[in-house]
Design goal:
The longest helix is centred in the first third of the chain and has 45 residues, at 3-47. 43% of the residues lie in helices and 16% in strands. The strands form three sheets. A six-stranded mixed beta sheet has the order 1-11-10-9-12-13, with helices on both faces. A five-stranded mixed beta sheet has the order 4-3-2-5-8. Strands 6-7 form a two-stranded antiparallel ribbon. The radius of gyration is 27 Å and the shape is elongated. Mean pLDDT is 87; it is low at 93-105, 433-444 and 507-517. It has helices at 3-47, 52-71, 151-169, 213-223, 236-247, 303-311, 319-324, 329-343, 362-370, 377-385, 394-425, 457-461, 463-477, 479-483, 493-504, and strands at residues 81-82, 108-115, 119-128, 131-141, 177-182, 186-190, 193-196, 229-234, 251-257, 261-268, 284-288, 450-455, 485-489. The protein contains 15 helices and 13 strands. It is an alpha/beta fold. The structure holds beta-D-glucopyranose.
């Protein structure tokens, strides 16, 4: 080989080495970035961990806050709002159906309006021969601009929807009682009136806060020429409890896990210290906990939760809700994936869409977690079509599934802890200590059957969430106690229950003996 040939050979070898070195370096750096993504995942998983011991701390904190919220207004972030509902429909089994709760002359057709989440519903409920014999529900999405517009626009929309529903259904031949489910925190003055404390779930109509919600609707109904008035103003949890109790007398609480989350339960009036002297016919009252606003240092909060909170209109409020409900879960996952995209190359160059807040809805999060195909084809489709991330390799798709799983598990476990908190407050957690009223009625071996009515898109539409919640409840309560607790899904309970409560509380009903005592 001549000198030139030797030079070329050496040159080629040098280039080859350089290329090889560059490849090795690139692979090493890709591995390092992948390791970074995995480290972020681990960190997130640890931050969200909900081992039984931690869940029990959350349960205890919930009970403490319940007491504090019942002791004084402002005593806790848990508002523990009075509902003035002291009688619930009781329809379990034909002979007893509604005879206790409704006078027979109140059989008939009742309407309700259900406003408060993603959807808006108008319902017609026919009560006759001792049962709900018919119900019709019409649902539509609430136009986004209405959730941020003016009080008048929102209530005109609601009143007009009722008007056209009534015209189609019954002409003017209508009972004058209307149930109004309004699923936001309301300070009630009576069962048919109350003022909005603040908005949640992305609603923000400034001029509405502090106003009487039922009055706003009554005014709008009058503007439409409708001779119908709100007879029962209820939270969605209260409506759900009413329907749950109607089907199953052992129902003592109701939980909503949908766009937002909340719970209500039946409390003894003597335990509602902040309203001493409060008299009810039954000695009990449904309390709307507004548990979405529950807070405790035991909650597993991560930096992503803080970022999420900063993005919302109700910063520093609804902390529990922001870890649990459908409005937020997709966004928490999006924040984690976005950080991974920034600090590693797991999503390649096409990860810009991940910087858009709320682009990953909880519906997608659920679909990702539920994809059980071997190659995670649904995950690929969602990444490609909705997040504009094409060609994510299988290991990246698995990472995405894991993130969605962590978010789901934490949410479900915390909801279970909330339910266990209510059971503990009522002395129905098998601990043998009745912290409400100190009656000590529930002791081991004498477990009373307890039913909790439950509703909401996240719980009803996401089987993995339900499984995690059920598992966590068993972990917290133990198998024996958990067996005595039935979580019962109601359908449209928030609206149907409101119609039943409108019937129970309709003004022409005078028979006090007609109430169903609830404690
Ligand atoms: C509201 C509650 C409601 C819950 C479920 C929360 O954001 O504050 O009043 O019950 O959502 O809809």
């Amino acid at each position: 080989m001549g000198r030139v040939g030797l030079g070329v050979a050496v040159g080629c070898a040098a280039v080859t080495c350089a290329i090889a070195a560059a490849l090795v370096a690139r692979r090493a750096s890709a591995r390092a970035r992948w390791r970074r993504a995995v480290a972020l995942l681990r960190e997130f998983e640890e931050g969200c961990a909900t081992p039984p011991a931690r869940l029990r701390q959350v349960v205890d904190a919930m009970v403490v806050e319940m007491h504090a919220g019942l002791a004084s207004d402002g005593g806790s972030k848990l508002k523990m709002l009075l509902t003035f509902v002291d009688a619930l429909p009781n329809g379990y089994g034909p002979p007893r159906f509604l005879t206790a709760a409704l006078a027979w002359n109140e059989e008939g057709i009742y309407y309700s309006i259900d406003l408060g989440g993603t959807n808006f519903r108008v319902l017609r409920v026919e009560v006759g021969s001792g049962s709900v014999i018919n119900q019709k529900v019409e649902q539509q999405l609430i136009p986004e601009e209405l959730a941020k517009g003016t009080t008048e626009d929102l209530f005109n929309f609601v009143a007009l929807a009722l008007k056209s529903f009534l015209e189609r259904e019954d002409g003017q031949d209508v009972k004058k009682a209307l149930g109004f489910t309004f699923s936001f925190p309301v300070r009630q003055n009576s069962v048919s009136s109350g003022s909005l404390i603040r908005w949640t779930k992305g609603f923000s109509i400034g001029d509405m806060v502090g106003k009487d919600v039922a009055q706003c609707l009554n005014d709008a109904l009058a503007r439409c020429g409708l001779d119908v008035r709100v007879t029962a103003l209820v939270n969605d949890t209260t409506g759900t409890l009413a329907l749950g109790h109607y089907y199953d007398e052992d129902t003592v609480a109701a939980v909503i896990i949908g766009s937002g989350t909340n719970a209500c339960y039946i409390e003894r009036t003597d335990a509602i210290i902040k309203c001493q002297g409060l008299l009810t016919n039954s000695g009990g009252m449904v309390v709307n906990m507004e548990w979405g606003n529950f807070w405790s240092s035991h909650l597993p909060r991560t930096p992503y939760d803080i970022s999420l909170d900063d993005e919302t209109q109700n910063r520093n409020d609804q902390g529990f809700e922001k870890m649990i409900s459908g409005m937020y879960l997709g966004e928490i996952a999006r924040l984690v994936l976005h950080r991974m995209a920034q600090e590693s190359d797991v999503f390649g160059d096409a990860s810009d869409s991940l910087s858009n807040p709320f682009i990953l809805s909880t519906l997608f999060l659920a679909a990702i977690r539920e994809d059980d195909s071997p190659d995670l084809s649904e995950v690929r489709r969602i990444l490609q079509e909705h997040l504009k991330i094409p060609d994510a390799p299988l290991k990246t798709r698995r990472l995405v599934v894991k993130v969605c799983d962590i978010v789901t598990r934490r949410a479900a476990c915390l909801a279970a802890a909330g339910i266990a908190g209510i059971l503990k407050k009522l002395g129905r957690d098998g601990s043998g200590v009745a912290s409400s009223g100190g009656s000590g009625r529930a002791t081991r071996g004498q477990l009373r059957r307890t039913a909790v009515a439950i509703e909401g898109g996240l719980y009803q539409g996401y089987p993995v969430f339900r499984e995690y919640l059920d598992e966590a409840l068993v972990e917290i309560l133990g198998e024996e106690v958990a067996r005595s607790v039935t979580l019962r899904v109601t359908e449209d309970g928030s609206g149907v229950g409101a119609a039943l409560l409108a019937a129970v509380h309709s003004s022409n009903r005078q028979q006090q003996g007609g109430r169903s005592h609830i404690v």
